[in-house]
Amino acid sequence: MTDDAGPPAASLSGSLARTSSSGPTAAAPRSTDAQAIQAASAPGSATVTTAVTTKRPRVKPRIVLDGTPDEILARNNRAASPAFVDKLLARAGTHWNKFYTNHANATPFFKDRHWTDREWPQLAQLAEVSEAQSADDNAAEGVQAERRRLAKGKGKAVLEVGCGTGAFIYPLLERYPQARYVAFDFAKKAVELTKNHPLHDPSKCHIFQHDLTLPLSALSEKLAAAPSEFGEPVREGGFDVVSCIFVLSALSPKQHMEALQTLISLLAPGGWLLFRDYAWHDAAQLRFHSLPSASYATEPSLLSPRTSSDVSEAPSAAKETADPPSVDPDLPFYRRGDNTLTYFFSSDEIARHVSDATAALNNSKGEGEVRVELEGAVEIVEREMENRKEGWGCTRRFVHGSWRRTR
Ligand SMILES: C[S@@+](CC[C@H](N)C(=O)[O-])C[C@H]1O[C@@H](n2cnc3c(N)ncnc32)[C@H](O)[C@@H]1O
User: Where is the composition biased (Low complexity) (predicted)?
Assistant: First the structure.
């Protein structure tokens, strides 16, 4: 797969033969690795029966994706124990850091994304400087008006959250050098790789380590601490573009709405929130229910039980803890073989989260503060992927959305 086809080759790149796992990466799939999901049928399609056998001589796991996506998802639904899920969530940063450390030298493992302005035509606005003040701005008072005055005449500001290696910002920086780019990731190694990118320019880029699930105040402090070369920091409410690409799926489902609230509060009036992530029935999700490990692993890939009786630990053990389990039942939340986490969304779910997040943000505002309004759309996009040489193909499915802050 090339990046132009869409997202990181998430589950495509883990080596089934070696680990029966998938990797969360922006890389093209490796030969035998990619076979793992080659047999995934198109969602909603008729029954497909395909067997995949690795070419490695000694280990020959066999995956059979047999049936419709719904039938496949109905299999192997035993979930990991709540205690194990809690441990995974607590160590999420460590696992991502390991992921980047392990793949840092395996170039060209990480590839820049050159497809983004094809998928989001709104990015063409990065060619402009920030709009001149409107009559409204002149009339506005307080901190927000001051920020907009400071931004006047400067390049547009982009924020990439969970930036990985900076695959989103650098192709944009090349095309729109007049814009300014802020990016963060909570994996230290990812931040290091982003800063070491050949196109990194400290006068245009402010890159730092940060956990998106922390309160907004923690992020505000880091935004304000931009290095002097970068000039005037871009702050909350000042971004013309905020992108969240294959990042929300890495968070616990309980954090999805609040993370979106943070992203919305960063948008400038007129700014765009751009979203892309894995969708329900994506080939990578089907694969989680078809791997040999799905049925025999002590702690399976599925983290969220479909019914409480499917939990591998006795339900009474979960009841003994004071806190409810970290993950609600019936959610498509999984761990990859390297213990990074991934979720598969529906478009309705994302639309609802964005709407709830906007409402929550407005409820948190004091009297007289400007209410935020968003307009946008979200859809499912499908991308057929194939590797003719190796004779495999699959359907990747993504939730793709964009919302404009209209007020
Ligand atoms: C699947 S990768 C996508 C990377 C990049 N956005 C891309 O599309 O290539 C998910 C990224 O989210 C980062 N991440 C996961 N949880 C995060 C959090 N709570 N705060 C910030 N970054 C996070 C991971 O370190 C990883 O770099």
Answer: 9-23
- pLDDT, one tens digit per residue, over 343-390 is 999 999 999 999 999 999 999 998 888 899 999 999 999 998 877 777
Q: Where are the domains of the chain?
A: 69-129+139-306+342-405
Q: Which two tokens stand for residue 388?
A: 């003719």
SS3 181: strand
**DSSP-assigned beta bridge partners for residue 275:** 244, 401
Segments in the chain below pLDDT 70? 1-64, 107-109, 130-153, 292-297, 305-330
- Cα 383 from Cα 117, distance rounded (Å): 17
- Give 189-202 pLDDT, tens digit per residue: 999 999 999 999 99
From the alpha carbon of 243, which atom of ligand 1 is closest? 6
Q: What is the DSSP letter of 30?
A: P
**Both structure tokens of 350:** 């994302």
Prediction pTM value: 0.79
| Per-residue pLDDT, 308 | 39
Residue 218 DSSP class = H
Task: Please say whether the beta carbons of 163 and 184 come within 8 A.
Answer: yes
DSSP string, 328-375: -TT--EEE-TTS-EEE-B-HHHHHHHHHHHHHHHHHTSPTTSPPP-EE
CA dist 88 and 345 (Å) reads 20
CA of 77 to the centre of ligand 1 (A): 26
Q: What is the pLDDT of residue 33?
A: 30
Q: Please, what is the end-to-end C-alpha distance for the chain in angstroms?
A: 39
Into which CATH architecture does domain 69-129+139-306+342-405 fall?
3-Layer(aba) Sandwich (3.40)
C-beta of 14 in contact with ligand 1 (< 6 A): no
The residues near 55 (Cβ < 8 Å, ≥ 6 apart) are 32
Q: What is the largest CA-CA distance in the chain?
A: 73
Give distance in angstroms: CA of 160 to centre of ligand 1: 10
Determine if ligand 1 sits within 6 Å of the CB of residue 162. Answer: yes
List beta partners, residue 347: none
Nearest to 159 by CA among 27, 272, 8: 272
Residue 383: is it exposed, middle or buried by C-beta count within 10 angstroms (0-12/13-18/19+)? middle
